[in-house]
C-alpha cells in the first residue's frame, strides 16, 4: 500500500475502497498488495508457473496445472480474468491464487489467469487489449507447438471457457465478443463457454469510475460496457453462458440485465442464471470455505467441465 501523500499533494479523484489519485499523478491503492509466488499446492497437487508474454507491456499469465495421472491426457482450458474495478488485484493476490488452485483442482482443468495492466495508470481499453493478447497467445499453442509445454501437452483447445468476476467478468465478455467477431484471432481455439460471476456492466446510468478510467468511452452507448448497445450480442459464438449473481450485491441488477439482453437479442445458446441468497459481491473469494462459496465453486467447475 502506498504511503500517504506529502503536503500540497491533494486528492483529485478517489474510488473507495480501491484507490486515490493525487495532483502529482501518484496513485494510492487502498488494498494490501500481498502476493504469492507460483508453487505446488500440497493439498491438491496443483502446480503453477508465471509466463511473461509481452516484455513491453509486462503482460503475463499464471498457469495452473492439476495433478495429471496420464501425461498425454487433454484437459479443459479455463481462461480466468480477475476482478477489482479494473484497478486492483493480481493473479498473485492470495484470494485469486487460491481460487484458481481450487478451480483447477475441482474442474480438473488447465487454468490460465491473466495479469492485465491496471487503471488508472493504464486506462481502459488496456485491460481489454491485454486479455485478448493473452487469449491469442494461448491459442498459438493449439497446434501443440507453442512455447509453453503445459498448454501443448495438456490443454484441450476445443474445450475452452472464459470466466471472470466483477470487472473481470466484463473483460471476459469482451474477449468472447472479440473472438466472435474475429476471422483470424484465437485461431485454433473454440471458446465454448462464458462464465460471468457478479459481473460489472453499465445498464442504465453513467458510472463515475468509468468516466475517469475510460475517457475514450462513449459511456452507455459503448457496447463494451453496456450489452444493450451491442447489436451483435445475439451472435456470440459460444454455446453456453453462466451468469452468477448475489442477492445483496449492488451489481445484481446488472447481472439480470445482461441475462435479459442476451435473451432479447436472440442468443441461441444455453443461458443459465443463478443467484445466491443472503450474500454480497464476490463473497466466495473472501470466505471460500462456507457452504455457499463451496457450492459456487462446484457450479463453476461443473460449467467448465461440461462445455
From TrEMBL:
Entry-linked SUPFAM superfamilies: alpha/beta-Hydrolases
Pfam families: Abhydrolase_3
Keywords carried by this UniProt record: Hydrolase
Domain Alpha/beta hydrolase fold-3, residue spans: 78-284
Gene3D superfamilies: alpha/beta hydrolase (3.40.50.1820)
The UniProt record lists the keyword Cell membrane: no
Family affiliation: Belongs to the 'GDXG' lipolytic enzyme family.
Name of protein: Alpha/beta hydrolase fold-3 domain-containing protein
